[in-house]
Each structure stands twice: as structure tokens, then as C-alpha cells.
Amino acid sequence: MIQSANTESRHGLSFDPRTKIILLILCVISAMIAPSLSYENLLVFAITIFGCASGKVRKSLVPAAFYGVFYLLTTRIMSLEKGLFYTVFTSWLGLFYTVYPCAFLANIILSTTKVSEFLTAMNKAHIPKQVIIPLAIMLRYIPTVCEDWGYIKDAMRLRDVTPSLFGFLKNPVMTVECLYVPLLMAASNTADELSAAAVTRGIENPTPRTCLLEIQFRRQDRIAIVLAACIFVLGLIWERIVSP
Questions:
Q1: What crossing angle do the helices spanning 84-112 and 37-53 adopt, rounded to 10°?
Q2: Is the Cβ–Cβ distance between 101 and 28 less than 8 Å?
Q3: pLDDT tens sequence across 78-108
Q4: Residue 99 DSSP label
Q5: Torsion sign, CA atoms 205, 207, 212, 213
Q6: Which long-range contacts (C-beta less than 8 Å, at least 24 apart) are formed by 182-188?
Q7: Residue 178: is its pLDDT beyond 90?
Q8: Pairwise CA distance, residues 4 & 210, whole Å
């Protein structure tokens, strides 16, 4: 029996992978053209609502709380007199507010998208396999590397080595040797293993894929795309609305 991939479950709503890609593209463009911090706040708030609706409440509220603290710090520093710290902070400020919403949304998308759903959706959209295969491997690569990073940190804590800034300043050679070198080795091995596994499972097979999940646009997909498009348009006319 074919199951629907876009129906409401106990964990939240499921969105079509194509919808998530469209939302990510609109988020990237909106963050790049963001006219003010108030618009950035609106963008992060919308991403938080999307994450909670997708069932990732903790992964949505914690980054949103961090953004709120950073925003308060930003407003505090911007009110100070200009100096060296003010100049350094404002130079880094634009990069943070451009990247953070995109990374926030990408984290939610990666945690709510299965590779099988993604492949089926991309095949339905007639995307070339030269694009699908790297993206599919990436969906498995990033979570796997993050998992390996957690294992490495847990193991190195037994040797009193932590990835914190204080730990690096205390013993930089040991930190690099025990944390970052194993991470690079694990990342390299993971890339080779995932590539071999994808080929073994027939990812390059030209025959159309079959899937037990029914991938199609539903009401929640249309609502999400319309709201994201409205936020994007709002960014274009923000100054006309806010300026007297």
C-alpha cells in the first residue's frame, strides 16, 4: 500500500523535498537582500515556525533562542561608542546575519528529509542525475560526520582533551592531534564508504525509481511556498514600507 509522505503525523507535518529546496533558495536570497535586522528577525521567526511545524521543536527553539541572545548583544554593542571592538564586531556582523538563517533552515531540512524521499522527488522533477547523486550523498554525509564528531569528542574527554577554545589554548598540539586529525580521517573514510554504498544500491541505475511513499505537493507545501514568497517580496519592498 502506498503511503503518503506529506501527511500529518504525530511528529509534525511532512513537506515535499522539492518544497524544502524552494524554501532554502528563497531563504538564501532573502538573507542576502535583508534590508534590516528587523527583517532578519522576521526571517528567523518564520524558520522557527517551519521547524516546529515539521516536528523539530527542540532543533528550532534552541537556535532561535541563541539568535535572540546574539541580537540583544548586537543592539547593545551598536549603542556603544565606535572603537576597535565596534569595528571588528560590525565587520563580522553582516556575515553572521547572512549565513545564520540559511544554516538554521538547512539543519532542519537535513534532519527531516530521507534520502529515498529526496531521490524520488528529484526524479519527479526531472533533475539530472549529475545533480541528484552528489546531493543525495551529502544528505547522508553531513549527519554521519556529525555523529563521528560526537564519538571522537566523547572518547577524547577520557584523555582530558576538549574542543573548546580554552582547551585549544591550553594544549593546541594535543587538541589538533586527538580531535581534528581523527575527524578529517573519519570524514575522508565516510565519503568513500557512502559513495561505494550509493553505487552498490544502484543510485546510477537509469531505470526509473520506485518508492513506497507518495511524493506530491499537498496543502502544507503550497502554504509554505506562498508564505516564503511573501517574505521574499516583503524584503524587496521593506524600505518603502518602513521608511516614512
A1: 20
A2: no
A3: 776 676 666 777 777 878 888 999 999 988 9
A4: H
A5: positive
A6: 182/152, 183/145, 183/148, 183/149, 183/152, 186/145, 186/148, 186/149, 186/152, 187/145, 187/148
A7: no
A8: 14
